[in-house]
Predict the 3D structure of the following.
Amino acid sequence: MKLKEYTIKQASEILEVSTSTIRRRIKSGEYVAEKKNSPYGEQYFIPAKEIDQAVMENESVNISQINKPVDKDEFVNALIEATEDKYRALFERVAERITKKIDEQNEVIEDYKEEIKGLRTKSDEIGKQNREDKKEIINKLDKQQEIIEQQSKMIQQLQKEKSESLLDKIKKVFGI
């Protein structure tokens, strides 16, 4: 797992100071940074832990600047509030990203539902057409069966007539 790093520009945005200040702090040794190749040439990369530490220090109360007694509860509440504000903003950003992702997924799900609905309708239409085609085929087969039975009777009649002798035919004609 690769540790998160920040460029000088990113660090300056996070700490709300100029890029010159970040460079000065790197040169003074206040921040550890490593020069690496990047798509834009060589750049300094500062480990996330360095910036996180600097953020915490910026948000902490500088006790050496306090000249008067401070109420312990007031101090603790101020620390809690500062920490809550920092994490609240972080949670809000994360929640916003998650909400956006959920909304995107819901849109995709709705699109899929519409597509499935269309496919079901098409499937129902095809099923109805297949049933109609089946009935039509059955009707045609029934008619062919009737024709075959009629032709079979005619063939039997013709065979019967053929098998009668000429004498029998003459008797029939004259009714004898």
Q: What stands out?
A: Helices lie at 8-15, 19-28, 48-59, 72-163, 166-174.
